[in-house]
Amino acid sequence: MARYAIINEERAVMRNEYDVFNNDITMRFQKLREKYSFFNQEANVSGPESTGPEVVKKEPEKEIVYIPPFQGRWKEGNEKITLEA
User: What are the residue boundaries of the structural domains of the chain, listed by start?
Assistant: First the structure.
């Protein structure tokens, strides 16, 4: 039982050290936020006009033509197999 009591005490000490460390880091970040207020500002994303996705025109889809590898001479001639995109 004494062994478990020692372990519990060590855990309590470690938790306290962790809490102190965590609070210290949190306070440092808060001070930095106060000092450098631009961290709190939202980004103003306004670029040049006519650069948004609504301006980009989609190119018409091109027909994809599949030509199988050479398989000797075909009886019906060379045919192209077209696949829909």
Answer: 1-42
